[in-house]
Amino acid sequence: MLPSTYVADVEKSMRYAQEREQRIVFNSFNVTVDGDHRDHKVGYDHGHWTCDCEGFEHHGHCPHTMTMERVLGETVTMGEISAPVA
Ligand SMILES: [Zn+2]
Fold it and tell me: How are beta strands 39-45 and 28-34 bridged, if at all?
C-alpha cells in the first residue's frame, strides 16, 4: 500500500495541474527545436522570447518560438516578443 503522504501529494498535484493557469508561471527556460534544416535554441525569460535563427533576428518572431507557444498553450504567460536586435 502507498504511504498516505504520497497519495496526498498526488491528489494535490492533480488539483494544481487542473488549476495550471492560476498556479504556474514560467520564469525562464531554454529548449532546442529541431527545425527542418538545423537545430534552433529557443529561450524564454520573463515574457521575452529569443531564438538564434535569422527569422527571429529580422522579424522578432519565428516558427520556433511560435511552436513553443503552441506546445505550452495556456500554461505559459505570453509576454511581448523581444525587439529584434539591430
Ligand atoms: Zn527561430
Answer: antiparallel
